[in-house]
TrEMBL record:
The chain crosses the membrane at residues 46-67, 74-96, 108-139, 160-184. The lineage of its organism: Bacteria, Bacillati, Bacillota, Clostridia, Eubacteriales. The keyword Phosphoprotein does not apply. This is Uncharacterized membrane-anchored protein YitT, contains DUF161 and DUF2179 domains. It is a multi-pass membrane protein. It is found in: Cell membrane. Keywords: Cell membrane, Membrane, Transmembrane, Transmembrane helix. GO terms for cellular component: plasma membrane. CDD domains: YitT_C (cd16380).
Length: 285
């Protein structure tokens, strides 16, 4: 399966899961949230506006004014996600009125579960190259106009305004549970990233470097950096190989080294960020 097919499947699955989260988990539990969805929930409570339709209406001006900042491809994907997920939210709510998977009186459990499900869905959407739209766009628009203001401060101010509004409409307790849900969601997104598309840097100190380098290039499709090294105890000349692979390639790398040079010293550690010519063979957040 090629990358475009994976992106499409992730976009489809993430959109459906996000819609289910909003319609069947978040709304019946009466837990607040931030962003456009939080505003839509509050307006639904006040005026019985449909959540999905309200989300579309609120997102339209943001996409219009922020189109140039987002880029054509990202804006198109995000627009499709917002449109389809919003329609699904209202459709699911219509077909399953008063239906809730979570216990109505246990808001703590509901906030944790909502955080996990929304985190998985949003990670899928990020990996597909899109987003759920919302106030991130308005923050970028504001940042473009007032370049001296930090983006983090703009996002914080927006969140505070939304949570104050949600607290007034849905009650202060809903904001507390929303903060719990937000924390769980961010950790879930990080966990999905770590489990699916994280990379590892590997240091290999060995004698038979040429065969290992050749197999790494052929089997894993990775370039390597080679340095001369001297053993501090044995004083023997060795080769120091540095290579970055994705987590799912570690098993193959271990087998290559074990078959060629079982006595090689190997150290593996996580990589937080990679710049430069590095091919991502799986999708990432």
């Amino acid at each position: 399966m090629n990358t475009k097919s994976k992106q499409f499947l992730l976009l489809l699955a993430g959109t459906i899961l996000y819609s289910v989260y909003a319609a069947l988990l978040l709304t019946p539990s009466k837990i607040g949230t931030g962003g456009i969805l939080g505003i839509a929930l509050s307006l639904n409570k006040l005026f019985n506006f449909k959540i999905g339709l309200t989300s579309i209406i609120l997102n339209i001006p943001l996409f219009i004014f922020g189109f140039r900042l987002l880029g054509k491809k990202f804006a198109l994907k995000s627009g499709i996600i917002v449109l389809v997920s919003s329609i699904l939210m209202d459709s699911i709510s219509t077909f399953f009125p008063n239906f809730s998977i979570l216990p109505a009186n246990d808001k703590l459990t509901a906030s944790i579960f909502c955080g996990v499900v929304s985190g998985i869905s949003m990670a899928m959407l990020f990996m597909s190259g899109g987003s759920t739209g919302g106030l991130d766009i308005s923050a970028k628009i504001f940042k473009n106009k007032f370049k001296s203001v930090q983006l983090s401060h703009i996002l914080l101010f927006q969140d505070l305004c939304v949570y104050v509004f949600v607290g007034i409409v849905l009650g202060p307790h809903s904001v507390l549970y929303a903060l719990i849900m937000s924390f769980i969601r961010s950790k879930t997104i990080d966990t999905v990233q770590e489990g699916i598309a994280s990379s590892r840097q590997c240091i290999i100190i060995c004698n038979n470097s040429e065969k290992i380098i050749e197999e790494v290039k052929i089997e894993l499709g990775r370039g390597v950096t080679v340095l001369d090294a001297v053993g501090g105890y044995s004083h023997n000349n060795k080769k120091f190989i540095y290579v970055v692979v994705q987590k799912h390639q570690l098993t193959s790398l271990r087998l290559i080294i074990k078959n060629i040079d079982p006595l090689a010293f190997v150290a593996v550690s996580p990589v937080n960020d990679i710049l430069g010519n590095y091919k991502q063979t799986s999708l990432s957040v």
